Amino acid sequence: MLKGFEGTEALEVDRAMLDVMRSQAGTDNMVKANTSALKGMLRWGHQARYFTPVQSELLVRGGSYPAPATAASTRRPRRNTRARNAGESAEYISPEDAPSGAKVIDLARELDAFYPTWGQLAVESAANLGFRWGEEFQLVPSDVHLRGCREQEEAHVHVDWQVNSGAKAGSRRSRLTLPKGNKRRIVTVTDISFTGFELERALAARVDAALREQEEGSNPDALLFPSATGKMLWHTTFTRHLHAAMRAADWPYTEWVDDRDGKTKTVYHLTWHSMRHRYARICIDDFDYTAGELMVAGGWENELTVKNRYYRSSDENRRSAAAKSRRRG
Question: What InterPro entries is this protein classified in (predicted)?
Answer without folding.
Answer: DNA_brk_join_enz, Integrase-like_cat_sf, Integrase_catalytic
